[in-house]
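Marked as duplicate of an earlier ticket. Keeping the data here for the record.
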Amino acid sequence: MKKLVLFILPIALFATDGKKVFETYCWGCHHQTAVAFGPPFSEIASKRSAEEIRAMIADPKDVSKVFGYKRNAMPAFKLKEDELQAITKYILSYKPADANATDSNKSKVK
């Protein structure tokens, strides 16, 4: 039990830091600017609104269908609200300066 608490405690301390949320949940499949198993954050940020990013993290199976993807390999994550906000902000920080991201009024997810 003591080992479990020691393992969870560092994650909880950095929960509102987007980079730490990325390192905890995302880095195995995503990189900030390079293609890995999943698309890089720079690509996601250039195509998706904050609402769409949040929805994809919380419910990738259903949101993938809304986006028209034939399949989805991303697992659903049960993040706390502060973690979800932090990772969304972190992903959007990689939006290229010249990218025209989807306007939140045109979001495919509600």
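See parent ticket for discussion. The two ends are 40 Å apart (CA to CA).
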